[in-house]
Amino acid sequence: MELDEHLASRKIMEIRKATIEDVPMLALLFNRYRVFYGKPPDIGAAAQFINDRLVRHESEIFMAVEGDTIAGFMQLYPLFSSTRMKRLWLLNDLFISEEYRGQGVSKALIERAKELCRETGACGFTLETAKDNDIGNTLYPRAGLRLSEGFNAYEWWV
User: Fold this and answer.
1) Residues 31-40: pLDDT tens digits?
2) pLDDT digits (tens, 9 = 90+) for 41-50
3) Could you tell me the residue ranges of all domains in the chain?
4) CA terminus-to-terminus distance, the chain
């Protein structure tokens, strides 16, 4: 019975859309995400950035939540495909807390991104990741994503 009691007391992971009320906790994880990518920590700016995206309806942010803990999040921005004449989503941010990695949280969030595409009549979503992101480059094909070999990614930054 100990195992059953443990499972009953454990809160089930839920994937849900972020709200303004989530900003303080989400900003902490978003700040860790930015630091992971070599940016200086700034929780205040992280909170403002997340708040602005939500208030202005400029992105869709989904969180993996277990109890009072945000285990991970993803943020998608709306784009359009001219050739398909449909909405297209950019999965720009995906981050899982270290203690939740390897538990299927990323895959659950990616499945939610697929649902968002169906809900909004989008033709799909796109994402980019570093060539040396071994975890992501293993995860994405397992989640049903295809590596685009027909395109080069170019960038220009101010």
Assistant:
1) 999 999 999 9
2) 999 999 999 9
3) 12-142
4) 61
Instruction: In whole angstroms, give the CA distance from residue 115 to residue 158.
Output: 34
Residue 4 CB burial class (10 angstroms; 0-12, 13-18, ≥19): exposed
What's the helix, strand, coil split of the chain in %, to 5? 40, 25, 35
Contact 3, 98 (CB under 8 A): no
Token pair listed for 158:
């101010």
Fold of 12-142: Aminopeptidase (3.40.630)
Burial 65-94 (b: 16+ CB within 10 A, else e): bbeebbbbbbbbeeeeeeeeeebbbebebb
Q: Could you give the dihedral angle defined by the CA atoms of residues 72, 110, 35 and 58, in that order, rounded to the nearest 10 degrees?
A: -100
Q: In the structure encoding, which two tokens stand for residue 131, read together?
A: 């060539």
